[in-house]
Amino acid sequence: MTAAASLEMLNVVGTFAFGLSGAMVAIRRRLDLFGIIVLAVAAGVAGGLLRDLLLREAPPEVLSTLWPMAVAAAAGLGAFFFAPFIDRQWRPVMVLDAVGLGVFAVAGCDKALAFGLDAPGAVLLGVMSAVGGGMLRDMMAAEVPRVLHEEVYALAALCGSAAYAGLRAAEIAEGLAVALSMLLAFAIRLASVRYGWRLPRARGS
Amino acid sequence: MTAAASLEMLNVVGTFAFGLSGAMVAIRRRLDLFGIIVLAVAAGVAGGLLRDLLLREAPPEVLSTLWPMAVAAAAGLGAFFFAPFIDRQWRPVMVLDAVGLGVFAVAGCDKALAFGLDAPGAVLLGVMSAVGGGMLRDMMAAEVPRVLHEEVYALAALCGSAAYAGLRAAEIAEGLAVALSMLLAFAIRLASVRYGWRLPRARGS
Amino acid sequence: MTAAASLEMLNVVGTFAFGLSGAMVAIRRRLDLFGIIVLAVAAGVAGGLLRDLLLREAPPEVLSTLWPMAVAAAAGLGAFFFAPFIDRQWRPVMVLDAVGLGVFAVAGCDKALAFGLDAPGAVLLGVMSAVGGGMLRDMMAAEVPRVLHEEVYALAALCGSAAYAGLRAAEIAEGLAVALSMLLAFAIRLASVRYGWRLPRARGS
């Protein structure tokens, strides 16, 4: 399998995992089938949509190539039929979600660099691509976005995105830079869940 | 009356109805006059704003032609003065809202097709135009968007938008396609309220 | 100090104050350090981001020049370390926030006029620049945006933005128009807090 094909496949995996997460939030909130699919799609594609809006790609990729939406909707449909089963599989779902986090962070950073943004802006856009879907998911469910108070989630995306910008600046080959920085985000996310890493809270709050 | 003028008038009706819905949510939340008008405007124009952002029309129609905002604000002002009266008129308000749903779904789909989007993307953009305002309204009121868990609402928009794309692909004259697909969305929405149609929820949730 | 430099400095002050407000909401919600910084940045830059999206500036200023994000993040970091202290300083924080409100309203209106929007659209864009950050801050914290129900906040921005458009239409020199309209927004906001001005609510709600 070529590098591009592997990346595409990881992208599908990530979109599917994000879609599942959206669907499970919708099911917990007792939304109906339509609400489940909408939240699955929102979680799966909103990050990429935000990225394309900010880079002024029109129409955004998500409306011109339809597989991300189809994959996310399929995840929603799957969750609808197998909710109790998926609920017990939190660990594999979390691993897939970590894959998506790494892929989206690196892909967002890459697209922003190609657009001509400087490294700091590109790194931030990578993070926004990676966590935007989960934020919209939780805001639509009228909850404080989990990404803001749960484990080291966005920080993992930040590390992956920053590592990619750094490796590209060091003129490492694209394929290698993608692989290394995705692995980094993935590993930090898994380690943070495994060891219960937490960021500090403010005193007296 | 010409077809274009009828469409324009239906558009005004829809914006007004959406504005009323925003204002009533604000009043229920005990917001002040300004909050009422902001929520009325958000509900009335956010769908069109989202559509224009995604199609990269700049400035968005809503900022260059001001009647949509004026109509929605007028609805908010009306609701402020006649809240108890409007509260009792849920049925006419719901019918006007269904008109808006159909108009916005078809107009959004039409604009996206004219922009050059393929049918699936255009259909989705139609749905987003139609339900975007209501979503923002409820998110601003810190509630789960009603569109996600109430009756067959977004689904009616989806049917209208898809019917329009289909009729245009079949080379039906634009005026006829607009009328038929708007009527379809309108009829599905009314029937779903009248007969209490519901979409299924996931088991065990 | 030249007029441009003064304006830039006021802009920094406003971004910092908005960042503080975002951080304090996050701390009250018991978010961790990352969540605090994200909410600080969201409150500090979202208004400008929205403005640039609507005016189709790509990439938005906020991603190409990084100081607004840096200033807002610094405010978040400061709030993290000195939360109990800042909590007692609500009055100075409120004054700084009023500075930001005026600066952003006028700067947004100015940018929209330069883009070629008509006065009413430009005035609205000024208001959206000024209150957008606070709205997103509260929506991310799953609260009804304070701007919708608290004192005369957005109305102050509206007065400043409208005054600026009016003064420019009357061909007043730019520097003077900026100073007068910012002062107006600032004064209305402070007076509304000082004298507890409120807008009316709907009867029977």
TrEMBL record, chains A, B, C:
Chief location of this protein within or outside the cell: membrane
Organism, scientific name: Allosediminivita pacifica
InterPro entries per the UniProt record, alphabetical: Gly_transporter (IPR005115)
Keyword Lyase: no
Pfam families: Gly_transporter
Gene Ontology CC: plasma membrane
Compartments where located: Cell membrane
Protein name: Putative membrane protein YeiH
Spans through the membrane: 6-26, 33-54, 66-86, 121-140, 176-197
Family note: Belongs to the UPF0126 family.
Keywords: Cell membrane, Membrane, Transmembrane, Transmembrane helix
Domain Glycine transporter: 9-82, 95-167
Membrane topology summary: Multi-pass membrane protein
